[in-house]
Design a protein that fits this description.
By secondary structure, the protein is α+β, with helices and mostly antiparallel strands. The protein contains 16 helices and 13 strands.
Length: 422
């Protein structure tokens, strides 16, 4: 009798232990997440590694596996196709928005709305993380077009520094007075301005009052050639190189424009704020400053973009992903982002404190901040259409034909794409 009681109690205890072990195993699995990250030899990868180290120290029952892809898009899509999507990944807004439209991403709207941490994200940044009125991602940082300029070259040319409301006419005038041929070989040794690369030329089109397409978020047709203001903007950029000869085109510059800035042979660089950390902070090394993009007929309209962080809908541990994301965007993590990368966080409270302190030497930051309220994100074009648009810009800047004809050819090639009609 006693032995049966003992066996019964023992079996009950073993069942409880087995249950506890099963729960512990389930908890261990549930606390692990996979995050696609940057290479460790990049400053972004170093930031993420530090964030994970602190996160795991703070939450020892949670683990994060960092996966560094060779090709970001291919790696993510191969994991999705294999049925093993990562919990968290990052990508530029255009790709992320497409994956949201394809139904691959977890709907974060309710979670974001109920998480106070995100109340101070710059409102305009949510435009870059929204599809069909629902937020599918959290924007990491603010990268917006602006102009870096060499104050020493401005003083040498007897020029005033760019004012907060300067225009594209001012930019051309400044560039003409800065550019010079010091060696007498017929080619500039000092350049007035470096035009924007790739997709960044959109902000010039917008400022002139033009558009790439009939809609930013649901484009049906390109309007490259049918919009007179777009033609005017493209003609202006072409003229910087081939008429006024104050700039070398982006795809055959003798040097990287940041190198030209550091060497003191470039007056103005049309770029984006993601490159703030590339130029030296010591004015004795390089006396440079930041200015908002110039104004055209439609005003100052910077191109704003970001890296979005998102969760895959079919990931095995959505709860763990949301827990890590909340820490990833905490004050501690965002301050580390500034410290490691020099990037401007999308959370305004950190941008106005840690970021401003990091770049305290830049007197033009308040004017740059003020210009962001008019910012626009990238037009949601399919990949093939983007390739056509960028190639058209390359052809314009390399003088491979009449500007109008290049735009018309690009428009004719892109508009038949079936993606526009879906």
């Amino acid at each position: 009798m006693a032995s049966r009681w003992i066996r019964s109690r023992l079996n009950s205890l073993l069942a409880i232990v087995a249950l506890l072990l099963t729960m512990a195993a389930a908890h261990a699995v549930a606390s692990e997440i996979t995050v696609i990250t940057f290479p460790s030899n990049q400053i972004d990868g170093q930031w993420m590694a530090e964030v994970v180290k602190r996160y795991e120290a703070k939450y020892p029952d949670r683990k994060v596996e960092l996966v560094v892809p060779g090709n970001l898009t291919d790696k993510i899509l191969s994991m999705v196709a294999a049925g093993t999507p990562p919990e968290i990944a990052y990508h530029d807004v255009q790709v992320a928005r497409q994956w949201a439209a394809d139904g691959l991403l977890y709907d974060l709207e309710s979670w974001i709305s109920s998480t106070p941490l995100f109340n101070d994200v710059f409102p305009f940044m949510w435009q870059l993380a929204t599809h069909d009125g629902r937020r599918f991602a959290v924007p990491l940082n603010v990268a917006a077009t602006e102009v870096n300029y060499n104050r020493a070259l401005f003083r040498e040319a007897g020029l005033p520094y760019p004012s907060p409301d300067w225009t594209y006419g001012d930019m051309l005038d400044f560039a003409r007075r800065i550019a010079k041929d010091t060696s007498g070989d017929g080619e500039n040794d000092v350049w007035g301005v470096a035009p924007p690369d790739g997709v960044l030329w959109q902000h010039v089109i917008w400022s002139f009052g033009g558009d790439l397409a009939d809609s930013d978020y649901n484009p049906q047709v390109l309007t490259l050639a049918s919009d007179p203001a777009t033609l005017e903007a493209a003609t202006y950029l072409h003229s910087l190189v081939h008429v006024h000869q104050v700039a070398s085109p982006p795809w055959w510059r003798p040097q990287d424009p940041y190198a030209q800035m550091r060497q003191g042979i470039l007056g103005m660089l049309m770029t984006n704020s993601g490159g703030f950390g590339i130029l030296p902070s010591n004015r004795d090394e390089l006396d440079w400053e930041v200015a908002p993009v110039p104004a055209g007929a439609a005003g100052q309209i910077p191109y704003v973009f970001t890296f979005d962080y998102f969760v895959f809908k079919d990931a095995p541990n959505v709860e763990g992903a949301l827990h890590f994301l909340e820490y990833l965007f905490s004050d501690e993590s965002m301050e580390l982002l500034v410290q490691y990368t020099g990037k401007m966080p999308a959370r305004s409270s950190i941008a106005n404190t840690a970021f401003m302190e990091h770049y305290a030497h830049l007197e033009g930051l308040p004017q740059f901040f003020a210009s962001l309220v008019n910012g626009r994100g990238p037009v949601h074009l399919p990949t093939q259409a983007w390739e056509i648009v960028i190639n058209a810009y390359m052809d314009i800047m390399n003088n491979r034909g009449d500007v109008r004809s290049i735009l018309e050819a690009a428009q004719d090639r892109a508009n038949p794409l079936s993606k526009f009609r879906q």
